[in-house]
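for ur thesis appendix - Histidine phosphatase family protein. copy paste whatever u need, i formatted it the way the template wanted (i think)
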Amino acid sequence: MSERTLILLRHAKSDWSGEVSDLERPLAERGLRQAPLAGAWLARNIGHIDLAVVSPAHRARSTWEIAEGELTESPPTVVDSRGYAASADELLDVVRELPDEDHTVVLVVHNPGITGLAELLTGTWIPMPTSTLAVLGLAGPWSDAGRRPAEILATGRPPEDFPHRHRAQ
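the 3d part is after this line
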């Protein structure tokens, strides 16, 4: 039985057409359609979230703000600069430092780090295109994340291919 639930959410599709820095790149029209679908899925299937940890990039913050609007109750949100351009190992450090009183946490960050983190935690490659969710069950405190394989509870991108449920191996 999992003691913790980690929800990995890759930011929604961003707009590459403007002359803005990567950090300030906004969501594309497709991203503006994707983000609320992710939030609606979270509201229906996860319910209560204790904490959101979000990259400072505009596209990640916008994704979460839109998705969070679909929830009945908004969790506290922490913008963590380590989430931007982070490697899987750097994201693992973020997870290991999560407060143990928070049992369900969503991490809204970028590729390739988020795909690498999913694989690092589960031992399984999980494709993470924009707006994909990976819901992972972890045993023990957050500080033990990655020391034993996490359980893949669901993965996919709402609504077309979600949820793809995995069975424990």
